TrEMBL record:
Annotated SMART domains: EXOIII
Name of this protein: Exonuclease domain-containing protein
Domain Exonuclease, residue spans: 4-173
Gene3D superfamilies listed in its UniProt record: Ribonuclease H-like superfamily/Ribonuclease H
InterPro entries the record matches: Ribonucl_H, RNaseH-like_sf, RNaseH_sf
Length: 176
């Protein structure tokens, strides 16, 4: 069975397990299908780390203006679950994003049990040791991939997807 690589990126109210997703993007690297949404969240009822909002520029970019209502949000989480079903969940630190997505879609993970982490995938090509994995900005700089909107869900997802494609091409030419 062939699986597609689905890059998912979330912007959240913080970095801990209690954080809430405030912006979601997913890109099927193999088909080009894109899913993007701003889930409903009552900011008065969730843990907020102000630094997260400063970094992702949630208010400056007007992201809240396109926030979905609760029913639309549920529909979009289900659409994301369907997109991920039997495919490979990928991203820059996908363990963080996948735990939040799983909390929102419920049930067992619909995606394949192995996650594709860009840092681990890029490390050999960049000459990095597995104990010194690069961050997204380092990988993008090394691969000369531009992030058109850093710290936005779609900007980070697009750049991550481009990096995966560039690395796939690189590894296709490498034989042991």
């Amino acid at each position: 069975m062939s699986r597609n690589l689905i890059v998912v990126d979330l912007e959240t109210t913080g970095l801990g397990p209690q954080c809430a997703p405030i912006e979601v993007a997913a890109i099927n690297v193999d088909t080009g299908e894109t899913l993007e949404f701003v889930p409903y969240v009552d900011l008065s009822k969730v843990s907020i780390e102000p630094q997260s909002f400063a970094i992702n520029r949630y208010f400056e970019r007007g992201v809240y203006d396109v926030m979905l209502n609760p029913d639309e949000t549920d529909d979009m989480w289900q659409a994301l679950g369907a997109m991920l079903r039997d495919n490979t969940f990928a991203g820059s630190n996908p363990t963080f994003d996948s735990s939040i997505v799983l909390r929102e879609v419920g049930g067992p993970p619909p995606w394949h049990h192995r996650l594709a982490d860009l840092a681990a995938y890029a490390a050999p090509a960049l000459g990095r040791d597995p104990s010194g994995l690069p961050g997204l900005a380092d990988v993008l700089a090394a691969l000369k991939v531009e992030n058109r909107c850093p710290h936005s869900a779609l900007g980070d997802a697009e750049a991550t997807a481009k990096a995966f494609v560039k690395l796939r091409d690189f590894y296709a030419d490498v034989t042991l």
